[in-house]
From TrEMBL, chain A:
Belongs to the RING-box family. GO terms for biological process: anaphase-promoting complex-dependent catabolic process; cell division. The keyword Repeat does not apply. One of its GO terms (molecular function) is ubiquitin protein ligase activity. One of its GO terms (cellular component) is anaphase-promoting complex. This is Anaphase-promoting complex subunit 11. Residues 36-79 form the RING-type domain. The lineage of its organism: Eukaryota, Viridiplantae, Streptophyta, Embryophyta, Tracheophyta. Residues 1-15 form the signal peptide. It is found in: Nucleus. Pathway: Protein modification; protein ubiquitination. It comes from Rosa chinensis (China rose). Keywords: Cell cycle, Cell division, Metal-binding, Mitosis, Nucleus, Signal, Ubl conjugation pathway, Zinc, Zinc-finger. The keyword Signal applies.
Automatic annotation (TrEMBL), chain B:
Pathway: Protein modification; protein ubiquitination. Keywords: Isopeptide bond, Ubl conjugation, Ubl conjugation pathway. Residues 8-22 have a biased composition (Low complexity). This is Cullin-4.
Amino acid sequence: MKVKILLFWWHAVAAWTWDAQDETCGICRMAFDGCCPDCKLPGDDCPLIWGACNHAFHLHCILKWVNSQTSQAHCPMCRREWQFKG
Amino acid sequence: MSHPNKRSSSTTTTSSSSSSLTSPPPMKKAKSHSQPDTKNGLHHHTHSDNDDDGRRAQPDNLSRKKAQPPQPGKKQFVIKPFKAKPAVPKNLEEETWEILKSAICAIFLKKPVSCVLEDLYQAVYNLCVHKMGGSLYQRIEKECERHIAAALQSLVGQSPDLVVFLTLVERCWQDLCAQILMIRDIALYLDRTYVKQTPNVRSLWDMGLQLFRKHLSLSSEVEHKIVTGLLRMIEKERLGEAVARTLLNHLSKMFIALGIYSESFEKPFLECSSEFYGTEGVKYMQQSDVPEYLKHVEKRLHEEHERCLLYLDASTRKPLVATAEKQLLERHISAILDKGFTMLMDGNRIEDLQRMYTLFLRVNALESLRQALSSYIRKTGQGMIMDEEKDKDMVSSLLEFKASLDTIWEESFFKNEAFCITIKDAFEYLINLRQNRPAELIAKFLDEKLRAGNKGTSEEELEGTLDKVLVLFRFIQGKDVFEAFYKKDLAKRLLLGKSASIDAEKSMISKLKTECGSQFTNKLEGMFKDIELSKEINESFRQSSQARTKLPSGIELSVHVLTSGYWPTYAPMDVRLPHELNVYQDIFKEFYLSKYSGRRLMWQNSLGHCVLKAEFPKGRKELAVSLFQTVVLMLFNDAEKLSFQDIKDSTSIEDKELRRTLQSLACGKVRVLQKFPKGRDVEDDDSFTFNDTFAAPLYRIKVNAIQMKETVEENTSTTERVFQDRQYQIDAAIVRIMKTRKLLSHTILITELFQQLRFPIKPADLKKRIESLIDREYLERDKNNPQVYNYLA
């Protein structure tokens, strides 16, 4: 009789990272794998956000940036009007 | 002394006013209260209180004396004045003295006194009243001196046997005391008037003592013999013989009464004691071991203390005990420590150590003891830390060592604060004696304890162990090394489901948090969050349309999704999965990315583990294996026999990893595969088949212990990562400091860095980082002073 091996329970492990074009945030110059200067922990606690122009920043960084602009806010990278990617 | 007198004085006053026409009343009272004194033979009376009363009573008594007795009759009673002033009989003094003298003689010779004592008192009274007190006093003194001198002279040349001699002295002293008291009682009125009113005249009792003292010092042979006798007797007692303590007591009281105790007795006694214990200390130190010696010292000190209570004066206690302490202890402190401390500590001799502590405390030698403790811990601990062969047991031996030290500290050293600090300091020194390795071993020890399969330890015991380990953790200077290894092991426990108890895990994390702050545990807590979150993701995956429509049935998949920043970094490991497994992974990935946009998902196949069902000819088994093992085993579903190279080609598992995997399947305790030829190591031209004869008593079998094991590469990479991290931290700290200061000298920068950085580091390493930052143009050396750096914005 031939031995038959059957897999029936699989505990897999995967790790996620941000899928941004750059390595670092254009505003704070910190790595996307890390967090913005105000945060202590990377990951869900300090998420990334993409603009309509497809540039990504730490959410906390771009919010600060947008709020600091008197009139219309622009993307710090491409100067296009900043809009969150829908 | 003053109390009984006061009381008696009040009774005297009442009796004198109420009754008795005859002779002045205080006599009986005085006599009755002075009787007990004779027994002790040491009262030096001063009759100040009584005297006062005597004087007040005087006029009253006199008037009664001269009044006529009342006579009944018809004749009118007329008081006529004396025709001539009554004169004192000329020979009154001489006659009265003759009577008194013979009485004094009789008293000293212990013969019955021919007169009534009351008459004698009256006689003294009469002389005093007629102002002959002064000469009476001199007469009495002269008479007493004659007798006392004779009494002391009689001791000269007496028995050479010291005890017999001392007994004679005792009797002589007690007799004289009784005799002087008796005379004092007779001449009490003298004591209370003449003595009181004349300055620089001793009371009769004191006069007696003074005469005794004078004649004792005149016959130095007697005095010397008494002192020698006493010393000899005490020495005999010290050597274990029973001696007449009452005799010793009486004689020492005699010295005290005579006021020559400290000069004539105490001084030579202390010298003699010092010499005795000096010799004994040296002798015993050589003869006996330290615990015995300490016991002996304790006994000796107690004996000396008792001696003072029993027959010496209380004032002798301090100097005497101090002498013994000095000779028995102080002189031998370092010898005692050198000879016995290690032995006592090694043997955990709580009681003996306590004795040592208590004794050393008496002579202010605790500092020496503390130092001995410090060097003992350092020396003993060094063996545990530095011996690489004992690495496996390092933490448990340290814990044991610490526990025994703590017990000794509590029970033997009475929780002395300074000793506690010493123990801490010594441990800190020990643990940091070797860089990094102890921190790593502590983390591993915790891993062992927190890992599943630690049956027999209760939750409480586990908690206790964690607390104890934490104490060691506290001493570590390079806590980052601990963190790295702890994190690596924690990750494995969580991902492979090997944790003994999530409660215990969390309790440990909160302990670390209290110890080092949330900065330290943030990421560790993040790991727990990921595990929780993964459960939810898996749940919704199972419910999702992707899973229901596209997933082939048969395999139950659950995925741990890790946030990269929280977990240890894992080197990606190549593996070619069977097609159906790839399908599973792809479907999950699609589901995940649809749920969380903007993310990338990477499979960590080296951490995957599986449960297999295997049909062996001898029965069906469930195998718990790693994903790599699964991939290898599944190859054999389609092939009979595979060579090492075949397996390598089909799985693309890295060479070393594959060899390890095959070894675990074919060369371990559980042999699912058979290797040809047989042997412990996997060689290039080995080949493998299923083990048809596989049999095991249990249904579920674990083969994936290999995953929990730390490989050498893992260990080095963990350590390297810590060092890498440290470099970043140094760089960051330098930039941070320079950014605020703009311009700083090298020395100040280094000092600041040492304050900020929380791991052990050498100045040379810091220099290298500064150089590197200069190269990268974060800093520059000042053009005028190369010892100063400028920050380049």
